[in-house]
Write a structure and sequence with these properties.
Chain lengths: ~150, ~150
Amino acid sequence: MNLREDVAPAAERDLDEAARHASARSARAGALTEDYVEIIADLLESDGEARPTDIARRLGVAHTTAIKTIARLKRDGLAHAKPYRGVFLTEAGQAMARRVRARHQTVVAFLRTIGVRPEVAEIDAEGIEHYVSEETLSAFERFIASAPRDSD
Amino acid sequence: MNLREDVAPAAERDLDEAARHASARSARAGALTEDYVEIIADLLESDGEARPTDIARRLGVAHTTAIKTIARLKRDGLAHAKPYRGVFLTEAGQAMARRVRARHQTVVAFLRTIGVRPEVAEIDAEGIEHYVSEETLSAFERFIASAPRDSD
DNA sequence: CCCAACATGTAGCTAATGCTACATTTTGGC
DNA sequence: GCCAAAATGTAGCATTAGCTACATGTTGGG
Ligand SMILES: [Mn+2]
Ligand SMILES: [Mn+2]
Ligand SMILES: [Mn+2]
Ligand SMILES: [Mn+2]
């Protein structure tokens, strides 16, 4: 019988952990894109247009930073824009926006449900949202549905 | 009376949202540092040493990437190392490791408590952990404590 | 209708985080 | 004790994401 108490051999454990970190790296890379798409959708809905300056102000970055990122969104088929004309979302961009906005709402609602104050829930959700899998999101939704409502 | 239904003026809402995104950006910048420190602490505990190659394998990156990041940890007073001798944590590094490891455990335990499968909980926690405020972490701990235990 | 304010865009810098290619150092098996 | 494999390190490249400085385009108030 084996003297070592390991359930999985060390090499396999390393591979698993590497895969987890790779997954987190990938999510981190997509986080900014998701925030831009979400903000553009919000602006288009509330103002009818999404100007680079407004996007930059919402994010708290210089307008040049926003312009450069918007160029990447265009390159990746998520947005389009004519010079001096504001930014619009492609079909793919709109699909991402719907998904990202719903997830954002769910994460905020969930944090509030477990007793986090609204302002703090908004802050934490802005980061957490990008790392929540479908399975975890479902667990959040299940929990919200089963919890007693505030309004009662 | 005001025809507009806004509770907060638009400018103020923009400032709030910008602050939330700034907070998330700041957390994102620290995430990699936290993972390195956590992994180094794990290796020191299990193997008695933390070699750059082992750190790189755990993260799933090239060893040169790890070496460059370790240089940053040293620059920032979190680690020290002699050439060809492996990496060690300073007092500050050890303090960060304790905090980060405890938080990681809490996030995983919390996700499992709400019904996320263990493997998925580990994956999601690897990202989520870096964006959880003290207040949210407390809410997680409260919930874990109040939930029925598996082992019963 | 013009011009000043504002929005937009370009150029170029820095830092972080990844990579590959290559060089050097250490170390363990024979 | 040698030497080949493994570990470590250096150099240099790319991309992302931030910045400032400056240039150009648009537009509305007087
Ligand atoms: Mn976000
Ligand atoms: Mn969001
Ligand atoms: Mn992590
Ligand atoms: Mn972790």
